[in-house]
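Researcher: Structure for this, please.
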Amino acid sequence: MRAFHVTFLLAALLAGCGEYRQSVTYEDGGYQGKKDTRMWDSERFMHDPSVWKQMVNERTQHQNEYVRTEPQE
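Model: Predicted structure, token format:
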């Protein structure tokens, strides 16, 4: 039984030594995945970043409690 434990322990220790390269290899030195588009690159925002920023700012104002509540005197 002791030989089994020693063998198991030795196998477990040697299993940790099998390290391999974990980085991705790129072909042709470039990214091969999907190209990301910017949020404002659509007909909805007329390809204008300022329109997109204005819409985001308006949306965040709806989350502002000071704007949503009526002032109490």
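Researcher: Any notable elements?
Model: Helices lie at 2-15, 49-61, 65-68. The chain has a mean pLDDT of 81.
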